[in-house]
Amino acid sequence: MSRYIEPTRMDHLFNRMVARLTRLGISLLGSRILYVRGRSSGEWRTTPVNMLTLDGSRYLVAPRGVTQWVRNLRAAGNGELHVGRRVETFTATELSDDEKPAILRAYLKRWGWEVGRFFEGLNANASEEEVQAVAPGFPVFRIS
Questions:
Q1: From CA 50, how far away is CA 27, in angstroms rounded?
Q2: What is the pTM of this model?
Q3: What is the DSSP string of 74-131?
Q4: pLDDT at 43 over 90
Q5: Quick one: pLDDT at residue 1?
Protein backbone atom coordinates (compact mmCIF):
# COMPACT_ATOMS: atom_id res chain seq x y z
CA MET A 1 0.00 0.00 0.00
CA SER A 2 1.25 3.50 -0.86
CA ARG A 3 2.00 5.98 1.90
CA TYR A 4 -0.23 9.08 1.86
CA ILE A 5 -0.92 11.69 4.52
CA GLU A 6 -4.07 13.68 3.89
CA PRO A 7 -3.79 17.46 4.38
CA THR A 8 -5.51 19.02 7.39
CA ARG A 9 -7.66 22.12 7.26
CA MET A 10 -4.64 24.12 8.46
CA ASP A 11 -2.52 22.60 5.67
CA HIS A 12 -5.08 23.71 3.09
CA LEU A 13 -5.04 27.27 4.46
CA PHE A 14 -1.23 27.38 4.50
CA ASN A 15 -1.04 26.00 0.95
CA ARG A 16 -3.54 28.60 -0.29
CA MET A 17 -1.48 31.40 1.26
CA VAL A 18 1.78 30.09 -0.25
CA ALA A 19 0.10 29.58 -3.63
CA ARG A 20 -1.32 33.11 -3.62
CA LEU A 21 2.07 34.67 -2.84
CA THR A 22 3.83 32.49 -5.41
CA ARG A 23 1.30 33.44 -8.07
CA LEU A 24 2.08 37.08 -7.25
CA GLY A 25 5.76 36.36 -7.91
CA ILE A 26 6.87 36.01 -4.29
CA SER A 27 8.64 32.67 -3.89
CA LEU A 28 8.91 31.56 -0.26
CA LEU A 29 12.19 29.63 0.12
CA GLY A 30 11.90 28.11 -3.35
CA SER A 31 8.14 27.71 -3.59
CA ARG A 32 6.66 27.14 -7.03
CA ILE A 33 3.21 26.35 -8.38
CA LEU A 34 3.38 22.96 -10.03
CA TYR A 35 1.19 22.54 -13.11
CA VAL A 36 0.78 18.97 -14.29
CA ARG A 37 -1.82 17.39 -16.57
CA GLY A 38 -4.37 15.16 -14.86
CA ARG A 39 -3.77 11.52 -15.71
CA SER A 40 -7.46 10.92 -16.50
CA SER A 41 -8.88 14.31 -17.42
CA GLY A 42 -5.87 15.80 -19.22
CA GLU A 43 -6.71 19.11 -17.54
CA TRP A 44 -4.03 21.17 -15.79
CA ARG A 45 -3.88 20.55 -12.02
CA THR A 46 -1.99 22.87 -9.70
CA THR A 47 -0.41 22.68 -6.27
CA PRO A 48 2.31 24.60 -4.43
CA VAL A 49 5.60 22.71 -4.09
CA ASN A 50 9.04 23.36 -2.63
CA MET A 51 11.77 23.02 -5.25
CA LEU A 52 15.09 21.85 -3.84
CA THR A 53 18.41 22.60 -5.52
CA LEU A 54 21.26 20.34 -4.47
CA ASP A 55 24.66 20.00 -6.12
CA GLY A 56 23.44 21.66 -9.31
CA SER A 57 20.37 19.44 -9.71
CA ARG A 58 16.77 20.30 -8.89
CA TYR A 59 14.23 18.09 -7.19
CA LEU A 60 10.59 17.88 -6.19
CA VAL A 61 9.92 15.88 -3.03
CA ALA A 62 6.49 14.65 -1.96
CA PRO A 63 6.55 14.77 1.86
CA ARG A 64 2.94 13.50 2.09
CA GLY A 65 3.73 10.44 -0.01
CA VAL A 66 1.86 9.34 -3.11
CA THR A 67 -0.34 12.37 -3.64
CA GLN A 68 -2.46 13.22 -6.66
CA TRP A 69 0.31 15.43 -8.07
CA VAL A 70 2.75 12.52 -7.77
CA ARG A 71 0.38 10.18 -9.62
CA ASN A 72 -0.20 12.80 -12.31
CA LEU A 73 3.51 13.55 -12.71
CA ARG A 74 4.33 9.85 -12.98
CA ALA A 75 1.79 9.55 -15.79
CA ALA A 76 2.67 12.80 -17.60
CA GLY A 77 6.44 12.80 -17.12
CA ASN A 78 6.54 16.58 -17.43
CA GLY A 79 4.92 19.76 -16.25
CA GLU A 80 5.45 23.42 -15.55
CA LEU A 81 6.72 25.38 -12.57
CA HIS A 82 5.31 28.89 -12.12
CA VAL A 83 6.41 31.88 -10.04
CA GLY A 84 4.40 34.94 -10.88
CA ARG A 85 4.49 35.27 -14.68
CA ARG A 86 7.63 33.16 -15.03
CA VAL A 87 6.90 29.70 -16.41
CA GLU A 88 9.42 26.91 -16.72
CA THR A 89 8.60 23.67 -18.49
CA PHE A 90 10.40 20.56 -17.26
CA THR A 91 10.69 16.82 -17.59
CA ALA A 92 10.70 14.67 -14.49
CA THR A 93 12.62 11.52 -13.65
CA GLU A 94 11.60 9.64 -10.51
CA LEU A 95 14.54 8.54 -8.37
CA SER A 96 15.12 5.07 -7.00
CA ASP A 97 15.01 4.60 -3.23
CA ASP A 98 18.81 4.28 -3.11
CA GLU A 99 19.19 7.76 -4.62
CA LYS A 100 16.89 9.51 -2.13
CA PRO A 101 18.68 9.77 1.27
CA ALA A 102 20.90 12.80 0.51
CA ILE A 103 17.97 14.61 -1.10
CA LEU A 104 15.57 13.82 1.73
CA ARG A 105 18.16 14.97 4.29
CA ALA A 106 18.70 18.28 2.40
CA TYR A 107 14.93 18.71 2.09
CA LEU A 108 14.53 18.26 5.84
CA LYS A 109 17.35 20.67 6.53
CA ARG A 110 15.71 23.34 4.41
CA TRP A 111 12.02 22.75 5.20
CA GLY A 112 11.95 20.56 8.31
CA TRP A 113 10.09 23.31 10.19
CA GLU A 114 7.27 22.99 7.63
CA VAL A 115 7.25 19.30 6.67
CA GLY A 116 9.09 17.54 9.49
CA ARG A 117 5.87 16.11 10.92
CA PHE A 118 5.43 14.02 7.76
CA PHE A 119 8.80 12.29 8.28
CA GLU A 120 7.85 10.11 11.25
CA GLY A 121 10.18 11.84 13.71
CA LEU A 122 13.21 12.05 11.42
CA ASN A 123 15.22 15.21 10.96
CA ALA A 124 18.20 16.30 8.87
CA ASN A 125 20.58 14.61 11.36
CA ALA A 126 19.03 11.14 11.03
CA SER A 127 21.37 8.28 10.22
CA GLU A 128 21.77 6.95 6.70
CA GLU A 129 19.97 3.76 7.75
CA GLU A 130 17.02 5.66 9.21
CA VAL A 131 16.59 7.79 6.09
CA GLN A 132 17.01 4.77 3.80
CA ALA A 133 14.33 2.92 5.77
CA VAL A 134 11.67 5.59 5.09
CA ALA A 135 12.80 6.53 1.55
CA PRO A 136 10.25 4.26 -0.21
CA GLY A 137 7.41 6.36 1.23
CA PHE A 138 8.68 9.65 -0.22
CA PRO A 139 8.54 10.07 -4.01
CA VAL A 140 11.38 12.25 -5.33
CA PHE A 141 11.69 13.59 -8.89
CA ARG A 142 14.74 15.12 -10.57
CA ILE A 143 13.56 17.90 -12.84
CA SER A 144 15.32 19.20 -15.93
A1: 9
A2: 0.94
A3: HHH-EEEEEETTEEEEEEEEEPPGGG-HHHHHHHHHHHHHHHGGGGTT--TT--HHHH
A4: yes
A5: 67
